[in-house]
Design brief:
Blueprint (H helix, E strand, L loop, with lengths): L11 H13 L3 H11 L2 H4 L5 H30 L3 H18 L7 E2 L2 H17 L29 E4 L2 E4 L2 H25 L11 H24 L11 H11 L6 H23 L10 H16 L1 H5 L19 H32 L6 H16 L7 E2 L1 H9 L6 H17 L8 H11 L1 H4 L5 H7 L1 H16 L2 H21 L3 E7 L5 E3 L6 E2 L3 E7 L8 H12 L3 H20 L11 H8 L6 E7 L8 H15 L4 E5 L3 H9 L14 E2 L2 H10 L2
Parallel strand pairs: 8-9, 9-10, 10-11
Antiparallel strand pairs: 1-4, 2-3, 5-6, 5-7, 5-8
Helix pairs in contact: 4-5, 4-6, 4-15, 4-16, 4-17, 5-14, 5-16, 6-7, 6-13, 7-13, 7-14, 8-9, 8-17, 8-20, 8-21, 10-11, 10-17, 13-14, 19-20, 20-21
Length: 688
């Protein structure tokens, strides 16, 4: 028997006090380390290799900036906000992540999935406040309205909503909701970083995230169809938005704007063709083609000089002012309204950012700090919320573009922010005549990656059926119910799958591999030899309260012996035998002699004298598990069958000791516990 090392008892109180003293102490060196850890840019920027890195960073920054501008304007449709706010978001997120992020490559900024989640909350609150969700409804003036907004065609409302007493129109209230939501989400992320709750991301498996992204992509696609064909339908809210929207689309299909339909068809063909060619010849291209920017410029020129809005009533983006709106503190009362909605937003934003950061850190051989990433993305939400921006996250598509164009550090993010700043200060009004259907085309084509996941379903099913089921359930719930519910359903369903797997795991009898000391599943492998008088049982899961009954049923079924039934049958025969002996009849109820009856009491189906339980797959035991093993030890002992445990890990052994499985003084432990199946089998063979 191997001897265990003595465990040194840890005084947890002293450990906690020591950690508190260390964390609460303040020295100049510690303060310096804290600041440099909180702002990683202070560590890597002084070591920046300018000649080696600058060209790649400038090139990737310019390309991402050129991509960001049309995407920011387009994603404003998803968020239900004006394009200027999307540009603010892209600018501030890049600057803050440059200062606080630990990943060299991820592109943090506006992201379609996050924009959708923000837009759903904004639309709901606008409806509750009594606003019309029609995109072409005239905007209202008031607190927070844009500096350069036109004073024509506007209506002012005196509202007392969520404690705000002001003339606040639809646009003002919408950005108020978005900034409050963003601020609360950022606070959640910072609190998660302080309390080191990054482990929450572990419960979002790859199947859940993929299903969630695909389901949300279907929702995004559905929301953009009305812009593609130029029909006026209300923006659906609540559960089942996808189905309701499609019903409204087909009801109003006759009102489609021919100009928008033709424009959309041309833009989609151009964008998809350019994307496919770019993917095919990306090894020959030094940087991706700025297709979106070219399409936007050409479409804007055609719309402006062709007067598509005036002649064909094609919906356009409208005035995009230049400059920055004065900062404003998000309304506290609005935060209370969106506090619950901010939680899934915070989790999804953090998970996507950290998963992408880890993926590219692994690819390029450096490390990130997940906790600092949580702080970085948290402050990418908190600080910009004061500047009329909404929630951000890392985006896979833009990150792939960054790496493919030579990005080395987050200097590229600063260059991208400068491109966005140029648009904010000077170029934004030029996009006045840009058709909304063109923006919808850009959004839909950007969903290609997520929608292509449907092609991977057969391969995914071939690899793992349960993960495929998780993907389908999450995707369906995200698309057909709502994104937040879909995420929750995916997490709960994936956990249930794990629980079910442990509740009904695989159980098997083992046979010996010929001429070896190894044993394997009798049903899975051929040419295994059975061990005479010994049954070897393997249970491939922890033994705990939820699978106790399944453990016993599997054991009784595979060994073809239920010790409780056999014991009851023996008692019945013994009782009948005693009754016949009292009457003086030396023959039993079966017409047999006493000696013959004794032989018959030993059932023919019991063809083993020892049961070896392979515990190598049992990772832990709870109280019910220990009691279950004690129960089978007692029941089989009544039938003169010994129960031997093999391959137990130290945790299981400790649980058995504490549960009294080996007796008070552990005297029988050497005869009950073995460190290999073969040792247990040899011991069983030597028993009389």
């Amino acid at each position: 028997l191997m001897e265990r090392k003595p465990h040194i008892k840890i005084n947890r109180k002293e450990v906690i006090l020591a950690k508190l003293r260390k964390s609460c102490s303040c020295t100049p060196q510690k303060l310096k380390n804290f600041i440099m850890d909180f702002f990683p840019v202070l560590r890597w920027l002084p070591k920046y290799r300018c000649k080696e890195y600058i060209w790649g960073d400038v090139m990737s920054g310019l390309v991402i900036g050129i991509i960001l501008v049309p995407q920011a304007i387009a994603y404003s449709l998803l968020a239900g906000l004006k394009p200027i706010y999307s540009l603010y978001t892209s600018f501030f997120a890049n600057i803050i992540y440059f200062l606080m992020g630990t990943s060299r490559h991820v592109s943090v900024g506006i992201f379609s999935l996050i924009s959708l989640m923000v837009g759903q909350v904004v639309d709901r609150e606008l409806l509750l406040a009594g606003f019309d969700l029609n995109d072409d409804a005239p905007p209202a003036l008031g607190d927070g309205s844009l500096q350069n907004d036109s004073l024509s065609n506007t209506t002012a409302f005196n509202l007392t909503i969520a404690g705000i007493n002001a003339e606040c129109g639809k646009e003002c209230y919408a950005i108020g909701i978005a900034t409050a939501l963003t601020f609360v989400a950022g606070v959640y992320q910072v609190l998660m970083g302080i309390f080191r709750l990054g482990f929450v991301s572990m419960y979002l498996s790859e199947s859940v995230l993929d299903g969630f992204a695909t389901g949300a992509s279907l929702t995004i696609l559905t929301a953009q169809v009305k812009y593609l064909i130029g029909i006026k339908i209300p923006r659906s809210q609540g559960h089942g938005m996808l189905v309701i929207t499609w019903i409204n689309i087909f009801r109003n299909i006759s009102q489609a704007n021919l100009c928008d339909v033709i424009t959309s068809a041309i833009c989609i063909v151009v964008l998809v063709t350019a994307k496919e060619l770019g993917d095919r010849y990306k090894h020959k291209l030094k940087f991706p083609l700025p297709t979106e920017l070219v399409v936007i410029v050409v479409a804007t020129l055609v719309s402006h000089y062709g007067k598509l809005n005036e002649l064909y009533a094609s919906s356009v983006s409208g005035a995009i002012p230049t400059g920055f709106i004065p900062p404003k503190v998000p309304e506290f009362n609005l935060m209370l309204r969106v506090a619950v909605d901010a939680l899934p937003l915070a989790i999804v934003s953090f998970v996507f950012t950290v998963s992408l950061s880890e993926m590219f850190a692994k690819k390029y051989a450096y490390t990130i700090r997940a906790n600092q990433e949580m702080f970085a993305v948290g402050f990418c939400n908190i600080i910009p919320s004061f500047f009329h921006s909404f929630a951000t996250s890392a985006a896979l598509a833009k990150t792939l573009v960054k790496t493919s164009t030579g990005c080395q550090t987050q200097i590229s993010g600063v260059i991208s922010a400068m491109v966005v700043l140029l648009v904010l200060l000077f170029l934004a009004p030029l996009f006045y005549s840009l058709q909304k259907c063109v923006l919808a085309c850009i959004i839909i084509v950007s969903l290609r990656g997520a929608l292509r996941k449907f092609r991977d379903v057969p391969a995914r099913y071939h690899v793992n059926k349960v993960d495929t089921l998780v993907w389908v359930v999450t995707m369906s719930a995200s698309a057909l119910v709502s994104t937040e519910v879909g995420l929750l359903v995916g997490i709960v369903f994936s956990m249930l799958c794990i629980i079910v797997r442990t509740q009904r795991p695989r159980a098997a009898l083992l046979g010996q591999i010929q001429d070896t000391s190894f044993y394997e599943d009798d049903l899975e492998y051929e040419n295994l030899s059975t061990v005479p008088k010994v049954k070897i049982f393997r249970f491939e899961a922890p033994l705990y309260y939820a699978n106790r009954n399944y453990f016993l049923k599997s054991l009784y079924r595979l060994t073809n012996l239920d010790p409780n039934l056999e014991a009851a049958r023996r008692k019945k025969y013994e009782k009948k035998e005693k009754q016949h002996l009292k009457k003086g009849n030396h023959r039993t109820a079966n017409g047999l002699g006493i000696g013959e009856t004794t032989l018959q009491l030993v059932p023919k189906q019991i063809d083993f004298q020892a049961l070896v339980v392979d515990c190598s797959s049992i990772s832990f035991l709870d109280t019910t598990g220990v009691n279950t093993l004690k129960e089978i030890l007692k029941d089989y002992k009544n039938l003169n069958i010994s129960v031997l445990l093999a391959c137990c890990n130290p945790s299981v052994i400790d649980s058995l000791k504490r549960g009294g499985y080996f007796g008070r003084d552990f005297g029988c432990m050497q005869e009950m516990l073995f460190y290999s199946i073969h040792n247990a089998v040899l011991f069983a063979k030597d028993q009389k």
